[in-house]
Write a structure and sequence with these properties.
CATH topology of the largest domain: Uridine Diphospho-n-acetylenolpyruvylglucosamine Reductase, domain 3
Oligomer: single chain
Bound molecules: flavin-adenine dinucleotide
Largest sheet: 5 strands, antiparallel
Number of strands: 12
Shape: globular
Strand content: 25-35%
CATH architecture of the largest domain: 2-Layer Sandwich
Mean pLDDT: 93
Strand order of the largest sheet: 4-5-8-6-7
Helix content: 25-40%
Distance between the termini: 50 Å
Radius of gyration: 19 Å
Amino acid sequence: MPTLRELTEYHKPTSLDEALKLLRRPDIRTVPIAGGSGLVPAAPRDVEAVVDLSALDLAYIKPCEDLKAFARLCIGAATTLQTIVEDEAIRDYADGVLVKTILDTATRNVRGAASLAGSIIDAKGNSPLLTMLLALDAHLTILGDKEEDVALAKWTQQDRTLITRIALPVLSNETHAAYEKVARTPADLPIVCVAARATVTNGQLNDVRLALGGLGRKPLLIERASIGIKEAVKIAVESIDPPSDYFATAEYRREMIGVLVKRVLSSLSR
Ligand SMILES: Cc1cc2nc3c(=O)[nH]c(=O)nc-3n(C[C@H](O)[C@H](O)[C@H](O)COP(=O)(O)OP(=O)(O)OC[C@H]3O[C@@H](n4cnc5c(N)ncnc54)[C@H](O)[C@@H]3O)c2cc1C
């Protein structure tokens, strides 16, 4: 694996325009670098140049002024995971479950360096953070040919683009979120995990988003306007085609997904 010492170029632009111009050069493979905790130890072989995002004012947490109808909070792409878990507004958001999944995703040292966007890009299918953001219906602002607002559920990483921020939607007082995992130890990343968001009216679950992690390259999203817990377990178990590996068999994963869906939705409807 090459390290960043072998790179030919390091850039630290002070405007998004400049950053984008550097990233879009056709003749030299250039990638963004935020915390560097993923990229520095494992830079892809063909990377020749990096664009450091630290002078672009992309580290913030604030109400989204231009997305009022949709979003409550905008998090700058370069905001570190540690800044996010320490933020009052985020601690109150979605019953504190977003914070729980960040703590479950990265240790204190990693959280101090790793950015939210870098963590989304590098996330595997069993990432608690990615699974939770999917259940919450987070949106990404992507800068490429144009600026676009893309639901995380529809997003695929494109070279030569920049994530500039992550927007979290407004949640009503009746909307709650929950997350559970199965792992070898509490400190390990999940074998499987489930995150959910639902509006709860008289114990009924409406506007349900269930995200299932640990089943492949990306977490799987199941959405229903309204659903009972038994039905949700059945749908989840029947929708998946889990892999077998040295952590767990496909059968174990399938069974645990059923257990976690029941656990998560039961905690929401209480
Ligand atoms: C000791 C150690 C332990 C780790 N443990 C864990 C762990 O437990 N769990 C875990 O999930 N990860 C872990 N990681 C991996 C690492 O923390 C993640 O990859 C990290 O979250 C990446 O964030 P970053 O800001 O450091 O990204 P970088 O390393 O800077 O970049 C990661 C990738 O994202 C791209 N990128 C960054 N910002 C943007 C942007 N705004 N727009 C577009 N592309 C962008 C980069 O080009 C690169 O491809 C660990 C890493 C280390 C060094």
